[in-house]
Amino acid sequence: MKTADTFEPRRTLLLDLFQVGLARVNGRRCVVAALGAAEPASPVWVAAIGKAATAMALGAYDALGGAIERTLIISRDPEDLSGFAAGPAPEVWLGSHPVPDERSLAAGARLLAWVDELPPSVWPLFLISGGASSLVEVPAPGATLEDLAALTRLSFTSGMAIGELNARRAALSCIKGGRLAARLGGRPARALFVSDVPNDDPRVIGSGLMGPAPGGTDGIERTVIASVDHAVAAVAARAAQLGLTVHAPRERFAGSAERLAARFAHELIAGHGELLLLAAGTDGSDGVTEDAGALVDAESCARISIAELDADDCLHQADSARALAASGDLVHTGPTGTNVGDLVIGLKLAALEAEVLAQRHDGRRQRVL
């Protein structure tokens, strides 16, 4: 029986393409590109919230330098802050993801106070990325933390669309659904978004943490600086450079993850030794796990069986990680500095072709990546 290592040239190629997609939507890089080199006329306060908060805040420092007076970061995990050595130390709060907890409420209270502390002379810059919905929260009157947590848990089992989930979250919140933006009282501000939601709508990203209030106007300039479409385009361009024929979907994948998995596995992979499929979260984690996703091939299920596991049973128990770990198919990246949702890359390439391709383009790949 072949092991996952048998497919090493192709697996390496797929993982390299995934990294190209991640690089294109990296929060630090995209913030720098969005802000440019022009110095702002006023001092800047930065509030970065989400899984890409630290990377986005670093991008603001790269672009604006000494113009930044204060920085608030609300994220999930402790991260290296050495890149901020040249400026004032950021204030960091950790929230919970994907289910909010008391830390999320503490971070929400601090964010409200931060907005209220803004001096009239300061230009506020908000950097919002996926994960903000649970990382920071202030419950609406009558709502409780358990209400918020229960809604999130319901979404795990009901197949609730992210747009519906975030709309229901906003209804339970004092800061979502445009309420935080309204608290600025119309003052000029800018908000940059790394989007992980369909249609890249600021009213949905982070449950509308810095989206406009319904029917209202404000002084906020909003820009979506990274989305999964940008990642897909970068992967497609790199694959074309390598001489591969590229078929990028016209629309994003949507609907039930189980139906999509069945479609990919049975229509594209099973029984076809030249086909491989990588599906991974661009934030570097899947739910509460530290696994980004998986890279499967035609014999993944056979390797799972050899490990005396049943792939269907693991799937029904929401324990696919155990099966994929046994087959050697899990993908780990660590924190990526972005979060634009899941990226799926398929590859149809014979092993010998992959080896030739790797030899031909290895030098170029190393330079690009």
Averaging pLDDT over every residue, what do you get? 88
Q: What is the CATH superfamily label of the largest domain?
A: Glycerate kinase, MOFRL-like N-terminal domain
The profile of the biggest β sheet is: 6 strands, parallel
In the CATH classification, which architecture of the largest domain applies?
3-Layer(aba) Sandwich
Radius of gyration: 22 Å
Percentage of residues in strands: 15-25%
Low-confidence stretches: 363-369
The CATH C-level class name of the largest domain: Alpha Beta
Q: SS-based structural class?
A: alpha/beta
**What distance lies between the first and last C-alpha atoms, to the nearest angstrom?**
33 Å
How are the strands of the biggest sheet laid out side by side? 3-2-1-4-5-6
How would you summarize the topology of this molecule?
Blueprint: H1 8-24, H2 27-35, E1 44-49, H3 53-64, E2 68-75, E3 91-94, H4 102-116, E4 123-129, H5 132-135, H6 145-158, H7 162-171, H8 179-183, E5 189-194, E6 220-226, H9 228-241, H10 257-269, E7 275-281, E8 293-297, H11 300-306, H12 311-316, H13 320-327, E9 330-331, E10 342-348, H14 351-368
Parallel strand pairs: 1-2, 1-4, 2-3, 4-5, 5-6
Antiparallel strand pairs: 7-8, 7-10, 8-9
Helix pairs in contact: 1-9, 1-14, 2-3, 6-7, 11-13
Describe this structure as you would to a colleague.
With about 375 residues, this protein is an alpha/beta fold. It folds into two domains: about 160 residues, MOFRL domain (glycerate kinase, domain 1, 3-Layer(aba) Sandwich), CATH 3.40.1480; about 200 residues, Glycerate kinase, MOFRL-like N-terminal domain (Rossmann fold, 3-Layer(aba) Sandwich). About 40% of the residues lie in helices and about 15% in strands. A six-stranded parallel sheet has the order 3-2-1-4-5-6, sandwiched between helices. A four-stranded antiparallel sheet has the order 9-8-7-10, sandwiched between helices. β1, α3 and β2 form a beta-alpha-beta unit. The longest helix has 18 residues. The radius of gyration is 22 Å and the shape is globular.
